[in-house]
Please model this.
Amino acid sequence: MRKYFLGFSLPADMSRCRSPLKVSSRASVASRGSCFFFLLLAFALPLHAAEMANLRNGFSIRHEHHEVVGDITRLYMSADPAGGYVDVPTAEIESFEPAPPDPSESTVSTKPMDLKSIVSSASNQHQVDADFIASVIHAESANNPRAVSAKGAQGLMQLMPGTAGELGVKDRFDPADNVDGGVRYLRELLLLYNNDMVKALAAYNAGPQRVQQYHGVPPYRETRAYVARVITDYNRKKLAERQQQAPAHKTRSAKTAPERSTLTASKSASAAGNE
Model:
């Protein structure tokens, strides 16, 4: 496992730190004091720095740190062990290098996310139902723009590095960039399956090749649960929309009813006068 010490180095002669403390001069006190200071600092600060794993296929995966487990290299996506990891065959990794500063961190703090506007913009641009997009985002990331899955998918619509690269998504953690790429991919799948939402969702989750292999939703528990979750949420949104429209329709009907009665009464009065 590659470890980095952030911004400092330990004294070259660590034997002085382990020797009995004998204060013989101010210089000795200062030397031993610096040893203890560095030791305490080493335990107080995290020893990992973000890395980039450069793969032989040309892609790179940003991660916090890694460890080798047999023939597999485990890439941890977060400093928290529970934050998820990606297992990559060690033979597929060409090199590691320190990761550049993540520009999305400053972007998130300075640009508040207006998810509704982002979804509406992508919906209008790519002609995909806004409620459908919102349901996919909710199922994929629970509306968290910093979400990272155990497989390495990132952002609101959980784009894999390879897919994001093909879609031209530059910053997978930027909400607008991520949603735009994800919706473009979703539209491609909807066109591929003649607007069959179920097949499009299954392909988004498991890949088009699996949908083709099984002639529909593949028999994976995760994929079937995912499709059901999105469709249920989408139907709930549409039902709520209809319920909101119903009172407005009743109000319009109530307003037009007296007008019709008045019109009928006028006609009756006119007919009576003609008689």
About this structure: Residues 51-100 form one domain. The longest helix spans residues 221-274. Confidence is low (pLDDT under 50) at residues 1-47, 103-110, 257-275.
